[in-house]
Amino acid sequence: MIGRMRIIVDADPGIDDALALYYLRAQPETEIVAIGTVHGNVPVQQATANALRLIERLNLDVPVAMGAAKPLAQPLRTAEDVHGPDGLGGHAGDEPKTAHTKESAAEQLADKARENPKELCLLAIGPLTNVALALQIEPRLPQLLDKVVVMGGALNVPGNITSHAEANFWHDPEAADLVLAAGFEDLTIVGLDVTMEGHAPQEWLDALPDDCFPRRILGFYADFYASFLGKKGFVPHDPLAAAILCEPALATYHEDRFAIELTGRYTRGKIVADQRFLAADSPFGRDIATERTRAKYAVTADNAGFLARLRHAVTQP
Hints:
This protein is an alpha/beta fold. It contains 13 helices and ten strands. Helix 2 links the parallel strand 2 and strand 3. This is Purine nucleosidase. One of its GO terms (biological process) is purine nucleoside catabolic process.
């Protein structure tokens, strides 16, 4: 890919999804070419309405396609306790004037990848149901996309929705595992190992202008995190994934082959890798995802630099 980074966003807006769109909008070398919505933080109909509201607010002329309404193999669960009854902290506002496209988010992703081979990046910041469905439509998707960054997983830290699982992967473990097994040539996973370290303190939030829409929606999100973590502020999961897509040098990575635990009573939805210290010729062969393409998992990030960039992005007119 040469020139501006052209990005398809798959999201479940969602307060931190909104921040990710603000972040991308502020980057001069990026272009959002399409948005797909998925169940997750809120039902997909609400996520779609929120995405349409956000593109109107951000003056983005991009198609929004409504995606999967439920996971591949388990009941729908949503997270209004985290993001508010409308997904935007009670500040979604009026009904959007724009309509979503007729094609599904999975169809949109497959079609745009076919039309623009190796020219598009994918930022997936919700459950991976749409991406899994797009793989069924277009099995060559891993070769057609340039880069893929996924927000999900808790490799060597506790989960946030269960003791072991991160929310996006837990909302559709089967889809997440299909995506990790698909053979994407440049796949980066941004999980809780780095996002939880990027906690934005209350002082960061208080410094935002009073009339700033992100400040309004972040109030609900920060209240949730105060009850969840016992300290004021919030965790900007999705915008950190957006930042790492735009600027990979913000993070360091562990490269490995990954899978999702699908059957564990306590561990369903957890990302796993065989991280044993084994010699190349060890008789104890690795036993997780040995046939899969290697991916990068973010393990550290420049949190101060990221939070400064995020502040700049969300205060742009």
